[in-house]
Design brief:
This protein folds into four domains: 75 residues, no CATH class; 173 residues, no CATH class; 41 residues, no CATH class; 141 residues, no CATH class. The chain is built from 19 helices and six strands. The strands form two sheets. A three-stranded mixed beta sheet has the order 1-3-2. Helix 3 runs antiparallel to helix 10, helix 13 crosses helix 18 and helix 16 crosses helix 17. The relative contact order is 0.09. InterPro entries: TNP-like_GBD (IPR048366), TNP-like_RNaseH_C (IPR048367), TNP-like_RNaseH_N (IPR048365). This is Putative transposase ovary overexpressed.
């Protein structure tokens, strides 16, 4: 649960001395009511940094003692990730020992993807790469660009010779920072996959990984005469979480710790609700703020804006008169998506990068087909590649995307047969040729399936029914990817400058 306990009104930013007095007074009052404060979380605002200094917080001792109790000081993890991205994009190269992390390699990866071609890093847009108004505030832009997917894309480009070997430290950095963010953003008690998005517990792999990351961050050094505060903030936060877990486990009998609760998201979401209470008012006055806070405290009944900067914190207000709604929007793992921009006037050619993406997507199609295949289907051996060895350059992306399984180079990734891969390439070329012609027709998926059926010439199926089912699966999924990209392209054309447009988007 969450509970707002106090707020103050200030004409300008609150000075660190005032913050220090308010926080110490509030913590004493809470401890007097037998509510023990264990952590203080904030962003890297100037007053907050000064406050940490006044409290005696250091990377070696990221806590302060009040009335005999340790209170740990942490910086908001999403804010740290954004600041790290901003420092790399300044541009400031990051030196980690003898290795150099260079943002220019990420830029080259993005700019090398022609709009007509399939992309390895499918989520990257201009907002991820270049400085634009307000995009520095979006957490998703930082988490998506500093991710394992972009790391894999850079690895593929290195293997293909598109990027030099000196880009490898950048790929390794993105992979590790993505893993660190997963570790500090856990929301599930049980482990679901090979990610660290589950709770810290005694003896879990998180503790050793956090200690490793602490020594890793200590070797960070950005270009320039002065080091950004972000480096020290990472060290303070990592050390504080390790000490906080020991404290909670030993003295309070905690068995798990979900690190997503060690963030400012509940506070940011509260501010989002307050803005919505008065007609999407970005700057409510004191009276509006007070009345809105009272209303929210009575019942957390207003849904958050779906495009907000914070994830749902799944918390409830401690003291409330009515129950919150039980139904919440759910999300599911989306199918792998491919961004493209068809153009009928230009010929479509498949280069090695496109082949890498098509091979990986082909494996996904085979996997989905076999999961929902018709009864009595025996196409398993016909569609899959039995020799799970690296034998061609178009397999690099699938290999790098695979989970780390020592006995199998391609891990859990499905490998399509050579004939299946060639037919998928043919269907992709056919799709790009005809989508502009048939997009206006009813039952466009069925029309496309009829056209694409003639492209399937090499792959053998156990029956004509299976062949039709596979073609229909390709047409349906490929059409969804096409619609998604068209919608993104149209959204880019909308003006984002006027206040009216910004407020209207909150309702769309």
């Amino acid at each position: 649960w969450i509970q707002p306990v106090a707020y103050t009104v200030s004409r300008t930013k609150t000075p660190a001395d005032t913050l220090h007095h308010l926080i110490i007074t509030l913590i004493k009052q809470l401890q007097g009511a037998r509510l023990f404060v264990k952590a203080l979380i904030c962003d890297q605002g100037g007053s907050n940094i000064t406050l940490a200094s006044k409290l005696g917080v250091t990377p070696e001792e990221p806590f302060f003692v009040l009335e005999g109790r340790k209170i740990y000081f942490l910086y908001d993890t999403p804010h740290l990730l954004k600041c790290t991205r901003n420092n790399l994009r300044a541009p400031h190269k990051l030196h980690i020992g003898q290795e150099i992390v260079d943002w220019s390699f990420i830029t080259q990866l993005y700019e090398s993807s022609h709009p007509l071609k399939l992309k390895l890093a499918k989520k990257l847009t201009d907002n991820h790469i270049y400085r634009k108004p307000f995009n520095n505030m979006k957490v998703k832009y930082a988490s998506q660009v500093m991710s394992e997917s972009v790391s894999v894309a850079i690895d593929v480009f290195i293997a293909l010779g598109v990027l030099p070997a000196s880009a490898k430290p950048t790929a390794d950095f993105l992979e590790k920072i993505d893993k660190l963010f997963d570790c500090l953003n856990s929301s599930s008690v049980k482990k679901a996959n090979d990610k660290l998005r589950y709770a810290i517990s005694e003896g879990s792999e998180h503790l050793a990984f956090l200690r490793e990351c602490l020594s890793w961050v200590e070797r960070w050094k950005f270009d320039g005469p002065r080091q950004p505060h972000t480096v020290e903030a990472w060290k303070v936060t990592l050390k504080a979480i390790l000490l906080l877990w020991d404290d909670l486990f030993q003295d309070f009998d905690f068995r798990v710790l979900l690190t997503r609760w060690l963030q400012q998201d509940p506070l940011e979401n509260l501010f989002g609700l307050l803005r919505l209470k008065h007609g999407c008012n970005d700057n409510p006055n004191v009276l509006q703020f007070t009345s809105g806070l009272k209303h929210i405290s009575v019942g957390k009944l207003v849904a958050l804006f779906s495009e907000g900067n914070c994830e749902q914190d799944r918390s409830t207000v401690l003291a409330q008169m009515s129950e919150p709604p039980h139904s919440l929007p759910t999300t599911c793992d989306a199918a792998p998506t491919v961004d493209m921009l068809p153009d009928e006037e230009q010929p479509v050619s498949h280069d090695i990068v496109e082949d890498n993406v098509l091979y990986y997507v082909g494996g996904y199609l085979v996997q989905q087909f076999l999961l929902h295949r018709p009864p009595h289907c025996v196409c398993n051996t016909l569609l899959k590649n039995a020799d799970r060895q690296l034998c061609a350059s178009h397999q690099y992306f699938a290999m790098f995307k695979a989970s780390n399984i020592s006995s199998d180079l391609f891990g859990n990734v499905t490998m399509p047969s050579d004939d299946c891969f060639q037919d998928i390439k043919a269907m992709e070329a056919c799709f790009l040729e005809y989508i502009g012609v048939v997009a206006h027709l009813p039952n466009v998926s069925g029309v496309l399936a009829g056209i694409l059926h003639s492209c399937m010439g090499r792959q053998k199926f156990c029956s004509e029914e299976c062949k039709k089912a596979f073609v229909h699966l390709f047409a349906r999924i490929r059409l969804l990817w096409h619609i998604r990209f068209v919608n993104i392209s149209l959204a880019k054309q909308r003006t984002r400058k006027s206040a009216a447009a910004r407020k209207m988007r909150k309702f769309l």
